[in-house]
Amino acid sequence: MEVLTFTTPQELGAAAAQHGAEVIKQAIETKGAANIILATGASQFATIKHLIGQSGIDWSKVTAFHLDEYLGLSESHPASFRKYLKERFVAHVPTLKAFHFVNGEPDNPQEECARLGERIQQHPIDAAFIGIGENGHLAFNDPPADFDAEEPFLVVTLDEACRRQQFGEGWFNSLDDVPKRAISMSIQQILKSRHLYVSVPDKRKARAVQCALEGEISPMCPASILRTHPRCTIFLDTEAASLLST
pTM above 0.85? Predict the structure, then answer.
């Protein structure tokens, strides 16, 4: 694992996008296609902005997945991750081959998990652009996370710390408005990505970063599992890195 620190979130996002773009272009060159994962939330604003600005990517050969979605939330809601990704990414890469969205309003959530699992197993991931939550979560795998689940997508219950983060970022009018369940990519599926690019800006993430990089590898800090991945790069700004010992 490599840890890189930058002065601002914009610099962090530009670096993550540049690193990931090289892997995307290499995958297209060697196998004719690339598959990626995109996260959402405030931490990913700069990374996605700079990724769509990278030159030399043939988006018509790129298939994308996203990590998670609230259950019971309409796509028109400001907090919808489908809305976020369509507006911030898909609209800017009109030649994109495909984007496999998580349906947050399925008739049967387990069937939706199975559908997504089948799709992603047909598209081995080259580059995953992800973040770390304030409680150390990866995707919506809150503590204690299931490190062993083999299913690619899971129905999960969101803990209060996770829900408070979503409210605190301004996506909801009240804590009670934040859904209590979601569909999330599993830890094991995230780790199957060939490269992980983890963008983590902001002082409020400092404790989670310290836990993930210097604490015990434990389901109580889901992001700590990133230390087991052979090609994981963590991109921090100085505030997110402020509690690290080195």
Answer: yes
HEC per residue, 183-198: EEECHHHHHCCCEEEE
User: Rounded CA gap, 118 and 138, in Å?
Assistant: 21
* Domain definitions of the chain by residue range: 2-237
Residue 149 scores a pLDDT above 90: yes
Question: Look-up: residue for tokens 């402020």?
Answer: 242
**Cα separations (Å) of 98 from 37, 94, 110, 129, 203?**
12, 10, 22, 17, 35
Is 2-237 CATH 3.30.1120.10? Answer: no
Would you say 84 and 66 are in contact if contact means Cβ atoms under 8 Å apart? no
pLDDT digits 0-9 by tens, 177-226: 989 999 999 999 999 999 999 999 999 999 999 999 999 999 999 999 99
Nearest-10 Cα torsion for 118, 122, 123, 129: 20
